[in-house]
Amino acid sequence: MSNDMNESEMQGKRVVITGGGSGIGADMALAFARAGAVVTITGRRDAPLAATAAHHPSIHPAVVDVTDEAAMVALFEGLGEVDIVIANAGAAESGPLARTDLEQWQRLLDVNLTGVFLTLREGLRHLRDGGRLLAVASTAGLKGYAYVAPYCAAKHGVVGLVRALAQETAGRDLTVNALCPGFTDTPLLAASVATIVERTGRSADQARAHFQSTNPAGRLIRPAEVTATALWLCGPHSGAIHGQAISISGGET
């Protein structure tokens, strides 16, 4: 994890990051805390949140399901005013569309799109002047991938939501943007690798090579690269960046 931001630029900022127990969310939490912010991380399981929080005293865990409207309302009411809200929580499953049942479709839309809606809505209601709203989408919000239709649909929805909210809030002292990483070296991707191994008989190295091949640079994106973009978007020199879906993909999109 890396952080080149001047600590004074984040000192005293109050940050909320959903899905902060692992992967990109955990990397962001530590970087923002090291930059001087007070960070609240959320997730559905206590153990990963506690493990992330143990790395810095300014990280505070809260077990909250982003799809639970009442819980999200209560979270933000308890926090009061905030400066930065990052809707990062997400989930992925794979399979052909013809075998996707309605329950799976709805479950993936709930966490990947409705959870972002609730996070941004409550964040907006409690955002201080000069605040920042970010949604972690994906290159799956900018293009299609086979066998992950519900995920792609949800991430396209996130990008549309961000663009619509940017138009609503144009002229206000805030920004809202989407981060669109390509395949990133996280536990979520590791789970996808394991699924490919189980279903196809390929080796883990072969499965990882499949994901690496989508990046023209021939590698996975690093969480720290996504975090660095988030820090910049939340800094003092990015006020004109509004309503953008920023691809972090080595040129894939």
TrEMBL record:
<dbReference type="InterPro" id="IPR036291">
    <property type="entry name" value="NAD(P)-bd_dom_sf"/>
</dbReference>
<protein>
    <submittedName>
        <fullName>SDR family NAD(P)-dependent oxidoreductase</fullName>
    </submittedName>
</protein>
<dbReference type="InterPro" id="IPR057326">
    <property type="entry name" value="KR_dom"/>
</dbReference>
<dbReference type="InterPro" id="IPR002347">
    <property type="entry name" value="SDR_fam"/>
</dbReference>
<comment type="similarity">
    <text>Belongs to the short-chain dehydrogenases/reductases (SDR) family.</text>
</comment>
<dbReference type="Pfam" id="PF00106">
    <property type="entry name" value="adh_short"/>
</dbReference>
<feature type="domain" description="Ketoreductase">
    <location>
        <begin position="13"/>
        <end position="173"/>
    </location>
</feature>
<keyword id="KW-0560">Oxidoreductase</keyword>
<dbReference type="InterPro" id="IPR020904">
    <property type="entry name" value="Sc_DH/Rdtase_CS"/>
</dbReference>
